[in-house]
Amino acid sequence: MSLVIVGSLAFDTIETPKGRKERIVGGSCTYCALAASYFTSPGIVGVVGEDFPEEVIELLKKRKIDIQGLERKPGKTFHWEGRYGHDPNFRTTLKLEMNVFDNFKPELPAKYKETDMLFLANIDPDLQEDILSQVKKPKIVAMDTINFWIKNKRPQLVRVMEKVDVFFANDEEVKLLTEEINLIKAGKRVLNMGPSLVVIKKGEHGALVLGKNNIFGVLAYPCEDVVDPTGAGDSFAGGFLGYMDRARQGNQSDIRKAAVFGSVMASYTIEDFGIERLKSLSDSEIKDRFSAFKKLLSF
Ligand code: AMP
Hints:
Helices cover about 35% and strands about 25% of the residues. It is an alpha/beta fold. The chain has a domain at about 5 and about 30-45 and about 110-295: UDP-N-acetylmuramoyl-L-alanine:D-glutamate ligase, CATH 3.40.1190. The protein has a 9-stranded mixed beta sheet with strand order 5-4-1-8-9-10-11-12-13, with helices on both faces. It has a 4-stranded mixed beta sheet with strand order 3-2-6-7. β12 (about 205-210) and β13 form a beta hairpin. α1 (about 30-35) runs parallel beside α9 (about 230-245), α4 packs parallel to α6 (about 155-160) and α9 runs antiparallel to α10 (about 250-270). It is globular. Adenosine monophosphate (AMP) binds near residues 12, 80 and 231.
């Protein structure tokens, strides 16, 4: 089984300077799986309520995403509401309704337990820990989180971090977690907490990939019209891990290319509201933007 992703499938209500959208489909798992599906065939673990649109499940299937680990339960789908100001790097969470995610304790399908690569996308660290304990011998475990869990479930989060290889977070989250304002020092602290690689996403300023003896920086694609930054981080992780899953090597060169593919996928996500752009990208669109990054980064 290739990459398994656990995270939220959601309705998002989003306000950005470009407009407001009520209850559109989002969620950390949704964005990540769609982005990864351009590189590999991921499996997903999550839960939706009776109100989640069947056509989105059909879209996941069409993109060759394995949905054996997706449950539909009586009740309402997870709902997140957020607002962005003119700086797309900052958002305010206005509402968080866990709904069917409350008390969600999945038993992983047998083939998921054998996976080589597991991504614990942004979701309750208790759930992340439970899933991690069910997977037998993964070669790479990666995780993501957000301020909400750092503030509300720090001990559980730190416990999960001790067992993962790759930690994704944005600059604000890494600073909050480590109480360190210098990003390099903050990244090094994270490396001392368990992971061997930390990917610090800096929104429109790109991302920093930090290992024990390596550092790599990738720019964000210079996009003049950011419509909705939601899901950029998850799309980055999806592109990054999807590529790593396809490459199967995990050497320095792959890690760098993975970071560029992460940026490529994030750059498409922010061009429209929700998952719109991730629904039907073509391989040539992905290749073209990868080439554009190559030009942008070479000197
Ligand atoms: P990103 O913009 O990549 O950080 O992720 C945005 C997605 O995360 C949205 O689609 C939300 O539905 C989802 N999300 C927001 N808060 C949470 C939370 N506390 N737990 C799980 N998912 C969340």
